[in-house]
Amino acid sequence: MRARSVWPARLALAFLLLVLCSASLLLWRLLESDQHKRLEEHVGYQARTLARQLENNLSIEVESLERIARLWNNLGRLQQAEWAHEANMALQGFSAYQSIQWVGADLRMRWLLPLAGNEAAQNFRLTADHPNYPLAMQAKNTGEQRFSNSFQLVQGGRGFVLYTPLFLKDAQGQRQFDGFLQGVFRVEPLMKQLLDGLDSDEFSVQLLENDRPLYSHQAQGSLAQMPQRVALKLLNNHTFSLQLNPTQALLQRLNSPLPQVVLGASLAISLLLVAALALALENARRAEALQVSNRLLKIEATRREAVERRLRDSRERLQLVLDLTDSCQDSLFIFDTESRELLHMNQATYASLGYRAEHFAQLLRNDPEQLLPGFHTWLKQARSAQQDNQPRIFQREMRRRDGSSQAAEINTQLVQLHEREYLIAVSRDNRERLALEARLQRLSQLDGLTGLYNRRFFDQQLQAEWRRLRRIGAPMTLLMIDIDHFKAYNDALGHLAGDDVLRKVANVLQECLQREGDVACRYGGEEFSIILTNTGLEGGEHVAARVHELIANLAIPHPGSPQQYLTLSIGLAVAEPANEENPGSLIARSDQALYQAKHGGRNQTRIWNAAQASSYSPSEPPVT
User: I want to staple 450 with a disulfide (CB 3.0 to 4.6 A). Which of 82, 390, 395, 506 is the partner?
Assistant: First the structure.
């Protein structure tokens, strides 16, 4: 009887042990899966970061070549020396260039920098059988930049070409194709520059073109599993992608022993629990004291299991919080303000500045001014702002590892805990917002029709330069310029033609400016002004003569003018800001000289002098 009663209980215990072991294995598998997922997310994040970095690097060079093309298209074909200067600036700023070239309208090589290493390309001509010929023609027809697929360079090795079409304006204002500004990139230097900051023992990197390897950086111990591929968007070209494979070293660094610890603990607890139950069954007939002991043992085992479960949950939640902060684009760091020891920082804190985590922590502890110029002043400001309940968002500059500065908007919070002061800082790179504000400020100062500075900027600039020249005791010259018979021109040819003339005159005035600080403005209607700083009468006369010369060279027909061509009248006045209170008198004198030029026959420059000033009558109607 007893045998029949014991075996069902033993089978039940065996079944319970099997269930507990299965649950432990399931929990271990879940933790292993979560750890594997975090590793894939880490590799994916690195792949996306590298892809965006490569796109951003090439985007900067696209903008650099586009800026040279705008100079070419707006000012006409550049002089070779000026072109070489601009090209050398681009070459110095980006080591992945093989060369920058100008291929003429006949698709023959004209200019090439640098010559060293590119001798084979000196007599190059882009022919219809070249693989990039259709793409180049597409760039020519659309007027937009195009990025080629990889091909075999005549200099050797594989590379890419960024085709930027160039145009000239003929006498009728029509655009004429003037060849291509070509930026040639070699694959290997481009990828080496991208991988400079990559830990060589963590990832293997491949650059793929149409899923075929174009460049490969193999790290020791690279794994074939968990590849992460990210598509690259390079202007018109979407054939490239980056693929990252983790290494065994990265896997070992990110792997946590927690799953094995949990598995061992769970199996141990399961065995203890089953052993306790078996012992309880075997001693069921023992004294009451032993039964009480067994019940207490089971209660203790249950309590320990609950404690370990809570501990495991707490660890998982903590790890989740750390992973989420590492995925954040904003920097988060917490440190002791006295010792400057870091309590925590996310990956964006040091990676966005080009540092490793330990290097960032060492700089903050030993030389914070090197990391954040004005660190101690900023800390005092943060304390003062918190005491006065003032905003605690500061605009500062962080110093990157390469020595450059990065704008940072830092939100601070000081916390007193256990008689120590801690600072919690959230930093955001707001360079784009600052650049947008500067662009909006500039647009508010420009005249929409002519592209010159407007009257508002004229008033501000005149006041600012007046104060500056007063301090250094230098002269200022002001030219007031008016288009002769402009109303008659509008009446004869229409307002659209009048707007076109205003733009042409604005281009001439802008071309006549030779020095920094000199500005041309649209004063109002058909009237313009030029401010010449640190310039006396002789310099003003030279600029006025240059304006008349360029306007005459344009030979713009004017049916309402006695000369039959468009002409300008210019009033010129010189002032010494050190001897006068404000620039209002300079404006009045140059306006009087303009009045004299108008009534003296137009198409001329008059210089203000006190003897002729009495003939100016502001009550008379204006002359156009």
Answer: 506
